[in-house]
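Please go through the protein record below and explain what the tokens say about the fold. Record follows.
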Amino acid sequence: MRRKLCANFLSKSGFPDKMKHHATKKNAPLSGEEQLLDYARRLKRHRKGRRGVLVRLSRLTRLYRQPHHLRAAREPFARLLRQYEGQIFTLANDDFICVAKGAPLLAFEKALFAVQLMVRDDPAMKQAIENGEEAAFLGHHFDIETEYEGFLSFAQGLAEGKTPDDQLAYDAGKVRQSRQPEKAAPAGRARTEGETSAGDRRETAQAVFLDGLPGGRDPDLDTAQGMLRALQRLDITPFLREWRIALVAAEERPKVVMRRIGFDVEGLRRRLAPSESLPIGSPVRHAIERYMAEKLLEAPDRLLSGEPEGLATIIDFSLWALDLPAFRDWLGRMKKSRRQHLVMALPAGEVLAAPDRYRAERRRLAASGVRLGVRSLAPELAPLFGKGGLPASFLMLEASRMSGDEGGSDRPAFPRQRITELDPARLIWCGDKTTTPRALALGFRLFCRD
């Protein structure tokens, strides 16, 4: 009876309701933003080896943000977390953040690329691909180990109600500002070549890089996924290739001065999907090249066999594979064998898409004696690596991507004046013998041949 009277009294006083409300609020599950902030704070002393990526599904149209789309988009990152310690945080706007310890950047790139393939038919995604901004449109990477304060600030902003776009607006503004052209030349006077702005050159670079092989078009989603699955079951040994790089001088026999180890992407395309094309710059082609770069690390004996003393070796590689633990192990073996004169040739598209990372990797590898070059380069883009531009030990220019002089060509005319300003000692012409006379006339002396 006494307990019942007490219960009635407390019920009428309203005190239990307040207690119940307080307990419910205190014990309510945290939102994804609050969980991320708590996690970020706890990482302060445990940030080593941690990376993260924000997958921005909120940028897609509503049709591609249905529950089954959101679940499918998280699956590649869930597979990543089966190999590495980490966590996924789902935000209120359908975006999510995946953080993992020890996972290389390439692992995050692969997972993000899988999502990109899933949603490539979304109108917003299509527009980003046409603009050459698909990677930045869908994902934003965090190097938590070296940029912890920035990651913590981002998490705090989300917990305070700011959106990812609000948080990243400053970076986007800097990119947009860097792309603004310089002031136009005075009226009545055409802009000279020397007045061409860096912003104009970047826009031209994007246009030329995204312009693939003639008539080329990316495979559709199902075909692309099938090609990547088949690639993992394929013996790629027959597609590894070796080229000789010869110095051609007037009235002298060509002299082999370097060799190049790489892979035949076109041969792989014919094997995996003969009716499809792989335009230079396409996401599928990049994925294949990154996979092949990893496979090259499994064949160190091939890279060293038959090497003449003092002959430099250029190895076709990927910017994102430089972060792999397997590459560091491979590089250690090269040092033990006293291997010198190594040049890792990276796709021009990867370098132009991430110039800051390229510069950082170049500085890091310089201590090991490894140099970085650029391959699959359209001749129109060569001036971007000239004086005041991106540094590169070698530039491998593709004759197949050279625009014609006829007015019918829809590409920019080849900049003869600018190519002569580049150091011919680091220019390598990649083309058949029919293009050799033209290359010689332009000042090329190094030729890559089978």
Summary: The radius of gyration is 27 Å.
